[in-house]
Amino acid sequence: MKTFNSNQLLESLQADVRELVLAATYLQKEDPELLLTAPAPGKWNVVQVLEHINSYGRFYLPAIEKSLQVNKPQREMFKPGWFGNYFTKIMKPGENGKITNKMSAPKSHRPASGLDVKPVMDEFFNQQQTLLALLEKAKQKDFGAIRTPISISRFIKLKVGDTFRFLIAHEQRHFLQIANAISDVRNATGKSQANHQAVQRSPAFLHG
Amino acid sequence: MEGIEQLYTFIAAVQSLKENEWQQFSGIWQPFECKRKTILTAAGETERYLYFVLDGLQRAFYVGDDQKEATIVFTYPHSFSGVADSFLTQTASNYFFETLTASKFLRTTYKQLEELMNKFPAIQQLVLKLTAFALKGVLERQIEIQSFSAEEKFRSLLKRSPHVLQIIPHKYLASYLGIDPATFSKLLGSVRI
Lengths: 208, 193
What we know:
The complex is a heterodimer of chains A (208) and B (193).
Chain A: E1 4-5, H1 6-28, H2 32-36, H3 46-67, E2 77-78, H4 82-91, H5 117-138, E3 147-149, E4 157-159, H6 160-189, H7 197-200
Antiparallel strand pairs in A: 1-2, 3-4
Helix pairs in contact in A: 1-5, 1-6, 3-5, 3-6, 4-6
Chain B: H1 4-12, H2 19-26, E1 30-34, E2 39-41, E3 49-55, E4 58-63, E5 69-75, E6 80-81, H3 84-89, E7 96-99, E8 103-109, H4 110-119, H5 121-147, H6 150-160, H7 164-167, H8 170-177, H9 181-190
Antiparallel strand pairs in B: 1-8, 2-7, 3-6, 3-8, 4-5, 4-7
């Protein structure tokens, strides 16, 4: 199984999170109407996707924070666990930038309708800053030994390093969904995209 | 450590340090490298590092309401890099800092630098002078942005840093000057330097 240099893994996950912050910064400058329009009946609009991501953060960020209070100094290498690799792999979008395996969100992570743009956006940005800070904090800790619980089963615990990988892969997956939703809404409404860099800039995480 | 001599040369031109001061100062740097198009600091984050560029090209940029990226500054060897204002004030950055090509740096943290500044007046002096020169550059650029025509901005850039045409993709240079990429190409064809 592939092992990672601990610091390099954390730095690369931080760069992934910053890429998502940039993508969300573009969304913030979009017409709110675009973010509130469902790409098709029964599908989530962009704000709902963000709220879905936020609901994961609400569970995982405090859980990670709590587990990182343990005092175990960092090891040079990180070896992912079996579950960690599995969850990260099924979440991560394919190399071609397509979401291959569709899945439906667990009940507790299904977003409401009628959400406002600003509070959801604000929470997203706050959570990403917290996530960046936790990745920084993990540089001092043995994140291959410390474990965190997961939201869908009481019986499985992941290595914190895997929780980071899984959580960020989950966000990347949904940012692809966001890019698709935006282009679907644009096509449906015939709105021009004079200067739409959010889609033009192909997200770095697709190139691994 | 690779690059430490280049750092010495750069520093020595600004401020002379005694042997023990240089010894302490040179001891706070760690090598760091990353791939192209890596975001090293996001808007909202506080800059942790001061970088000294050994290889590659980097830029800081702001995303405007019209979703246009305004390139604020480029850095390349040998110079300091990172989000300077966020680093010095330890407050959140308003913009992003990324590598445009694969890059090699030496870097140090605010804490490490602050410790040495408190201990050695000469190192404080060094940081003050570097900040002063950076401020001078920023204010000069402010004049160019507010008062110069596209052609004047183009001429001024090429007079100051003619080599950037070779190392920086032209779309980013246009974004740096705040002119349209098409206008930039036209100027490139028509202006004699």
